Amino acid sequence: MVQLRIKSLELGLRLSRQNQGGGVMHVVGGSMVKELLIERARACIGVSTYRRSATLAEAPKVFNCFRFTQWLWSSVEIQLPDHQLLYSRAVPVPFGDIDTADLVFVPRLEYSVAEDDFGHVGIATGMSTIIHATKWKNGVIEEPLSEFANRGCLGVRRIPEQYYCRP
Fold first, then answer.
1. CATH code of the domain in which 102 resides
2. pLDDT per position as a tens digit, 8-59
3. CA–CA separation, 100 and 98 (whole Å)
4. How many domains are contained in the chain?
5. Do the beta carbons of residue 90 and residue 81 sit within 8 Å?
6. How many CB atoms are located within 10 Å of the residue 29 CB?
7. Cα–Cα distance between 162 and 151 in angstroms, integer?
């Protein structure tokens, strides 16, 4: 059922992106794209499992935090690198200005800059919650942003609408 729900979201996104000539163009409304990303993320809660060495090819059945956000954004033709905090098209955003679909980076437990300078990432659903893949709950969960960021924040990045929405 989850796979069917995800396919239906993908189909809706694809249909909204087709132009009259049969080619593909980007969705006009950025808020629509963000809501679809969050719906797609929520469809994975309770059904996707976590594995640190997950690959993008295993999505949506198996994720780690970076593959989860890569998979979400790939549906709108945004190819995030493994080290998403350095993604050149993403712009830094103050923690207090978090909005839907922003990427929020926090330190991992037992965090060490020498070993793991990019921490853990989730996708914000707005100002109050975040969805992320976690080994502690063995899968994708949604939790309050305050709990997610209780170890501190390494940064927040927003992908500007100009990269996935064109008239």
1. 3.90.1720.10
2. 444 444 434 433 333 333 444 688 999 999 999 999 999 999 998 999 999 9
3. 7
4. 1
5. no
6. 11
7. 32
Tokens read off for 165: 């929405």
Can you tell me the mean pLDDT for 88-94? 91
Q: For residue 58, what is the DSSP state?
A: G
For the record, the structure tokens of 88 come out as: 């050149």
> What pTM did the predictor assign?
0.79
List phi, psi (to 5°) of 155: 160, 160
Rounded distance between C-alpha atoms, residue 58 and residue 48, angstroms: 10
- In angstroms, the CA 64 to CA 21 distance is 38
Query: Do the strands 49-50 and 62-63 form a parallel or antiparallel pair, or are they unpaired?
Result: parallel
What values do phi and psi take at 18, rounded to 5? Answer: -80, 140
- Band of residue 108 on the pLDDT scale cut at 50, 70, 90: confident
Domain that holds residue 79: 2-163
At 119, the amino acid letter reads: G
Look at residue 167 in the predicted model and tell me its pLDDT. Answer: 60
Q: How far apart are CA 143 and CA 166, in angstroms?
A: 32
